[in-house]
Write the structure tokens for this entry.
Amino acid sequence: MSPLTDYITYETRRQFFGRSAKGLGMAALGSLMGFDRQSARGAITEGGELAASQHFRPAAKRAIYLFMSGAPSQLDLYDYKPAMSEWFDKDLPDSVRMGQRLTTMTSKQKRFPIAPTIYDFKQHGQSGTWVSELLPHTAKMVDDIAVVKTLWTEAINHDPAITYIQTGSQIPGRPSLGAWLSYGLGSDNENLPAFVVLNSTWSAKRDAQALFSRLWGSGFLPSKHQGVALRSQGDPVLYLSNPNGVSPDIRRAMLDGVQELNRKQYDEIGDPETHARITQYEMAFRMQTSVPELTDLSDEPDYVFDMYGPDSRKPGTFAYHCLLARRMAERGVRLTQIFHRGWDQHGNLTGDLPLQCQDVDQPSWALVQDLKMRGLLDDTLVVWGGEFGRTVYCQGGLSKTNYGRDHHPRCFTMWMAGGGVKGGTVYGETDDFSYNIVRDPVHIRDLNATILNQLGIDHERFTVKFQGADMRLTGVDAPAHVVKGILG
């Protein structure tokens, strides 16, 4: 062997024996508890890098991330600005814009006329939180959630902005939040992935921004930590079912043969990805039983479907996926992420936005209430939001009843619930135009630091050496802070 190959193999063998030692202990424990090692075929759950000793006691064991891809308008949903009604069709003052970089979609406009929301806002709950009429169910649970009005990001276009909030970098290739959690904390269920992704249908009758699998990828982390996307038609996971004529015993024998070849390859080369491949094959075999059971909703009573709304019986809808997310929380999935597209309302906002809200409002409320009723909300962190906000000025034609809004990264709204979050909180303040932050800014790095914090992870200490740097989800080139004002 060359010195480099010898060094790499030495490192991976050390890791291998470390894992083997843990495996012997688990095997002994399993025998005492009646664990069927033969049927499990190596299905002992691997803990994550931090599973044995997290940085501190976590408030949450798992998270559910409801991501509104395309950027929902904070002005029409959460950030109530009544003074704007007197500014209809007046130009946005230069003193407010302050030379902000604009997208190419509005940078050529001769004017930037103010478009006040046409929707009514009311205060709700003991907290008196202002919520739009478009979200009547969310309004009922304001005392369960913390509304953060002052998120901000440097990214001004969709793909870099979504990549940024999901991975901590605008440049593709970094691990996603779910991959970091899988790597750090491992799984609480040996038969399901630690990180599951659901892509929902949407009702706005327009094209939507594409989503790429790298948004739930593992980047430079081992590939076993990437998100597993469940489909709504056919097999929930591609090739989950055995082909015609292939029995489970034949599939088991085939996998055993492949695994033996992979182990020989691992011993010769020492590539950690080979070990990851072995783990993934075993997980896929176990998922042949666990995933169909997870996605079979026949045991859910009618009142549960009624709570989530009529779409909850339709595979692929946001409501259906929220119900699945609750089932995954019960089964120990570390992060369930639901993407809902179609929120990019550059025009016809008053035609499209109500449809999008109708998709997500009741299911989001039902998910929080369902988790609460089952005693799961206290240790499940729920996050709702998009990649940036929308402008107060109109893109395109403006009328009293319709308008469009461009991308706005300087301030936008998200909410969080459960997992140690203080319900009934409204955090941060924007100016009268919902254009600039005047109090308590929250960068997306701070958001990710807070999510990690609630799961028992110190974002500054949770690093992986890559390309000569100690990489972390919150980045290495700027500080990040936990948003303590929303925590109980």
